[in-house]
Amino acid sequence: MSSPFTLVLTGQSLIHHDVRQVSDDGFAAIKALIRQADIAFTNFETTVFGRHGGWPMKGSYFGCSAPVVLDALKDIGFNALALSNNHAFDLGPPGVLSTLEEVEERKFLHAGIGVDATDAGQPGMKTFGTRRVALVAMDAGPGPATMYAADATDRRPARPGVNGLDVTRRFEVEPTVFASLTGIQDTFQSSPMERGNYAQPHDPPDLQSADEIDFYGTVFRRAAENKRRILIDETSLQSHLTTIRLAAEGGAFVMAYLHHHHWEPDWREAPAWVQSLAHACVDAGAAVFVSHGAPVLQPIEIYRGALILFGLGNFLFHLSEGEVVWSSPDVWKSMVATCRFDGNAKLQSIDLQPIVIGGERLDTDNYHERIVPVPAPKWLAAQMIDDLAVRSQKHGVSISVEECCGRILVAGEY
């Protein structure tokens, strides 16, 4: 039997500042909490502007960071990073290459991007003490087809990029709405090449029946009611599950990671398709499933003894001055999850430390000045734990309160 170990999981880290320069007692306490873990994980929600250079591939939501921010993450205590997210390709393939180079130089456990699709889909592997840990990281978009890694063929070179989980967004609409869309399409479709011309850089989506139309890149299906569905491509899913299964069969402790922006209308709730994916990853051998994307706290589930964190929101969230779109107080509240496992890698307990980025005053618009997280004050911590407990109870998880922190006891109960 191996020794017991501790895993710390946080919200995503959209980091542009070297936070080693920040002197704050609250932030120091958070760093001390993270540093005590054997494995400390976050999502690196940016791309490195390094030796390989690159060019902005986006408009207002573009972001890149100097390599020094990785030193800041190491100083906080992180030693494991997911790299698959919507900012990983913001500098194009050169940014992917620079990120890989800088992350590997600092010896992080990492996964989620690569020099081609085969490389991007490989699990990151690293030994912590005597524990072999595998990280499988994917991104489900939405994003341009060009951001995802591709293998070379006899007519196309390889493309560095992100490890993608292929999903389709399909809108089901009532017959009257479907007829209106078909009428618009018939009016403006001037040639048989219309779909192909306006699909670039994507290939036109495949239609499954006469009840579907490709409305300039979005599939609409005639149905009894209006509803959006996210459909996971089975071939893509099985490829990722095989990677998880092989890593688990090889004796590794497997962490599965997903980044996506297919949020529910209430972005604090977990999408049903993500829950199904999480269960499939656990069934394949993952001991932990973590997801980011929605910048808010989402429920927690324990499935077959494995931890599922549908979303811990943000840990670091560095904005530009005047960027006010993220004004919701929920964006600035999160938790640090400390997970304890026994020598057999069985989850025993989870402690939840409520944090707030930039301090407890959430009624101001100084968003670009909210640089580091600190422990939430008692009154806010209690509110956050109670709120998360109510939403997690729907997934069968009970969260108790102990000294302004949440606690989940697992062994023998799930």
Describe the model.
There is one protein chain. With 414 residues, the protein is of the alpha/beta class. The protein has 2 domains: 5-149 and 233-409, 4-Layer Sandwich (Purple Acid Phosphatase, chain A, domain 2), CATH 3.60.21; 168-230, no CATH class. Helix content is 25%, strand content 28%. The protein contains 9 helices and 23 strands. It has helices spanning 25-35, 68-76, 92-105, 117-120, 175-188, 194-199, 234-249, 272-284, 378-393; strands at 5-9, 12-14, 39-43, 80-82, 109-111, 113-114, 124-128, 131-139, 161-162, 167-173, 212-215, 218-222, 227-232, 253-259, 288-292, 300-303, 306-309, 314-317, 333-341, 347-357, 373-375, 400-402, 405-409. Strands 1, 3, 4, 5, 19, 20, 21, 22 and 23 form a 9-stranded mixed beta sheet that branches. Strands 7-8-14-15-17-16 form a 6-stranded mixed beta sheet. The mean pLDDT is 94.
What does the overall shape look like?
globular
CATH superfamily of the largest domain: Metallo-dependent phosphatases
Radius of gyration: 22 Å
CATH topology of the largest domain, by name, is Purple Acid Phosphatase, chain A, domain 2
Uncertain stretches = none
Tally of structural domains: 2
How many beta-strand segments?
Answer: 23
Share in helix: 10-25%
Separate helix tally? 9
Strand content: 25-35%
Per CATH, the class of the largest domain reads Alpha Beta
